[in-house]
Amino acid sequence: MVNTDAPVLSKAEWMAKLSQRRESEDVKMTAMYSSYVGGITFDKALMSLPLDDFMVHRGMGVYDTATVANGHIWNFSTHCDRFLESARKAGIKSKWNRDDIYKIVNEVVAATGLKEATVRLWMTAGPSGAFGINPDKCVEPCLYIVVFPSAYIDTSKPDAKHEVPADEVEEVTVASDVVPFKPPMLASCKSNNYLLNAHLFMKAQEKGGHFGIWVDENGVVKESCTMSVVMMTKNGEVVGPAFDGGILKGTTMRRIFEICEAQSPPIPVTQRDIKKEELYEAKEVIMCGGDTHIVAAVKLDGHQIGDGKKGSFCKLICDAMSEEMATGKGRKPEDYVPVNLALTVPVEVDGQGLNLLVDTGAPQTFVLSNDTLYNGKACNGSIYGLYVGRPSGFGNKLKEVSFFDGKKADIVDHRADLKLGDHTVLDVQLGIVKNYTAPGLSPHSSLGLGPVASSRGIVPLLDQLVTKGIIKTKEFSIYFHPENRNEGELLLGGSDPRKYHGELVAVPVRDKYRWIVELDNIRIAGTPVLEAPNSIIFDSGTAFFGATLQVLDTIIGHIEKSFTSVTGRKLAWHRKEGITYFVCKDRAHFPIIELVFKRLPDAGNVRITIPPELYVNEVPNSPLCVLLLYEIPLDEKTFVVGITLLRDYYINFNADKRQISIAKSVNVSQAEHSLRPLMNKKRSPPALSLYPYDNLSGIQF
User: Fold this and answer.
1) Where does the UniProt annotation place the signal sequence (predicted)?
2) Burial status of residue 621 (CB atoms within 10 A of its CB: 0-12, 13-18, 19 or more)
3) How far apart are CA 535 and CA 508, in angstroms?
4) 10 Å Cβ neighbour count for 548?
5) Which of 38, 346, 361, 387 is disulfide-compatible with 381, CB 3.0–4.6 A?
6) Residues 411 and 434 sit within 8 Å (Cβ to Cβ)
7) Integer angstrom CA distances of residue 2 from 7, 19, 293
């Protein structure tokens, strides 16, 4: 019976009902970015767009899809170029270029932490405030991006590999006089108007097929409902329909052609009109789309295709694509781009979902807002999200916060309700950024975990949590999952012995304001690097190892020497603007870097290792890699080590005892307690665990 009740709901009631519905449904989406809102959300109830957006009520929107495989965005330039071309054909005035879109996609994927995923992008003319026909009335074009887990890999298995499967189906053709084919403009533009495609699918299902293959009034093959059609003839030629404006320029079909041409000897490829009768006589017929969707049509309109099963050509394509996605083999650098991860946690500030950079190098907790000026201009979006609202300390004197890398933020006080994990902490002091200066760098929001505030009037978050009775001690732990170093957990108020091997070995902190310990030496292939011990800061807001130029040159010299002893050749590298570049393939022969820390007197030293996969990073759109070893200013005597370089370890920071404790991380079964990931929101956020005041022996959610 239809429910005809139409009660008037408050905003809170509406959101509660919407959240309940979305939570009860199998929603695959992990994260959504909206340029209209200016940020990313992990709340499925908020993954929406305005009803007056022209894509909704006038169909003026385009979309495309990309794949994330093995932590890399695969074949992206092809998808993005088609995406922008579709927007141009649709008359949407894009304010984004390919680099802009890549940067945003990278940030959204990085925020999810997914290494195997699908990315769906939409560009629309934007909302207009009404339902007219003139797109010039729209406020602005909008970009929406959704990321969801890959359907082709079990991401719960750390050793699972991305494999492109090939389904077998019995297919049917559907003539254009039964379901009209799209006019050329809509056929060649990947618009959001797929009404006729949906009808093709429904008619194919009705006829006993699966997806359906369109043929025109002359019996010429066009495409499937969401895929291109390719055949291999009995003489070994691969044939696809011509891109004559009548069909979409399928990215997967184009990749198949490239794979064929790369074989030895090359498989001949051509594009021309294909009669449906030719498909009946073909050796193999496959339908392809979405990078990884390969379907073998083993029967068509009752005619058996080839041997009646998927053949060697289909297997060749699936194997080649699987290898590409796992290793990048055969792809240009711009089509196998690594995703850069940020050490972030999701929180709620006054009920608004935001992401904060976990920063042990600073005590201040602050957020970007919709009023923040970034390098003098409006801050139009960030992976950290934007707080909407006026700060409670509006009109107060601004406080300047400076960072090691030259960034500066002017913040104003704000009192907020801060939700950390399952705990909502009332009346927390934090800052809202008014001005952010960072030439060439992105702005960030911060969860400050520095031990003591050096700025007057700033109370560190840990101190506030202790005062409010949320935690008992001013300590926290950072844990990375050994089977996937891009996943982990932040625990406030204690440590969890289940997550590390042996005992936590303590190193004394030697500074009141920063997490500084004494570095006894650096060893490479057993050879010491330093002439004397040096101070070093543990900084989770940094992704590199920082030292003086003299020390960096010595480290690189030892890396060169080790490389030569293994390969018999000299390592080619160059430095530009303080960054050291080399060819990525050489990193396979780089040594482990060992850091040796001073413990208490007569207690021996603590040794931790950094493998090359953690201190080397790939450069997007380039065959080059960089060493995450950067020069610090000459007047800065303290070295820096980013926590992301230490992802093999469980690290506990204790401000009360003035020590950092370290142990090797171990795998933990997720059966007893759901691990809340630090950089991966596969499970719904929040990704932060708190130890209760009266029970520090275990995690409670």
Assistant:
1) none
2) middle
3) 11
4) 16
5) 38
6) yes
7) 15, 22, 38
pLDDT of residue 439: 67
For residue 678, being part of any structural domain is answered with: no
- Angstrom distance (rounded) from CA 189 to CA 510: 62
CB proximity list for 45: less than 8 A, separation 6 or greater: 15, 18, 19, 21, 22, 23
Rounded to whole angstroms, how far apart are CA atoms 357 and 359?
6
Q: Out of 115, 190, 419, 598, pick the active-site residue.
A: 190
Residue 514 sits in a domain whose CATH number is 2.40.70.10
Query: Is residue 113 within 8 Å of residue 677, measured between CB atoms?
Result: yes
Residues 538 and 644 in one domain: yes
Structure tokens given for 19? 């959240």
- Domain for residue 436, yes or no? yes
Q: Which of 631, 429, 594 is nearest to 520 (CA)?
A: 594
Find out whether 685 and 674 touch, Cβ atoms under 8 Å: no
Helices within 140-272 (DSSP H only): 184-188, 195-206, 251-261
Measured distance CA(172)–CA(640) in Å, rounded: 63
- Helix (H) / strand (E) element for 350: namely none
Identity of the amino acid at 652: N
Q: Any idea which residue has 């760098």 for tokens?
A: 441
In the block, residue with structure tokens 């579709």: 86
Length of the chain counted residue by residue: 701
Residue type, 425: V
The CATH number for 33's domain is 3.30.470.10
d(CA 260, CA 667): 43
Query: Which residue range forms the structural domain that includes residue 111?
Result: 28-149
**What tokens were used for 679?**
């950089």
pTM of the model: 0.64
Whichever domain contains 237, its CATH number is: 3.20.10.10
Q: Is 190 a catalytic residue?
A: yes
CA distances to 3, 170, 244, 290, 304 from 214, rounded to whole Å, are: 40, 15, 16, 18, 18
For 571, the token pair is 């390592």
Q: How does pLDDT run across 168-181, given as a tens digit for each residue? A: 999 999 999 999 99
Same domain, 330 and 365: no
Distance CA 477, CA 688 (A): 11
pLDDT number for residue 593: 97
Domain boundary among the residues 441, 467, 493 is at 467
316: helix, strand or coil = helix
What separation, in Å, do the N-terminal and C-terminal C-alpha atoms of the chain show? 39
Query: Is the domain of 513 the same as that of 543?
Result: yes
Per the CB < 8 A criterion, the answer to whether 58 and 51 are in contact is no
Residues 583, 600 share a domain: yes
| Sheet architecture: strand order including 72-74 | 39-41, 31-34, 142-149, 117-124, 61-69, 72-74, 336-338
Q: Is residue 19 part of a domain?
A: no
Copy the structure tokens of residue 376.
């003098």
Same-domain pairing of 171 and 306 = yes
Task: Give the span between the Cα atoms of 345 and 452, in whole angstroms.
Answer: 21
Same domain flag for 320 and 247: yes
Tally of domains in the chain: 4
DSSP readout, 34-84? Answer: ETTTTEEE--GGG----TTBHHHHT--EEEEEEEEETTEEESHHHHHHHHH
Q: How far apart are CA 185 and CA 213, in angstroms?
A: 20
Q: Is the peptide bond before 265 cis (omega within 30 degrees of 0)?
A: yes
Q: Which residues of the chain have pLDDT under 70?
A: 113, 152-163, 330-334, 336-342, 380-383, 394-395, 404-405, 439-441, 453-456, 600-603, 620-622, 634-636, 668-701
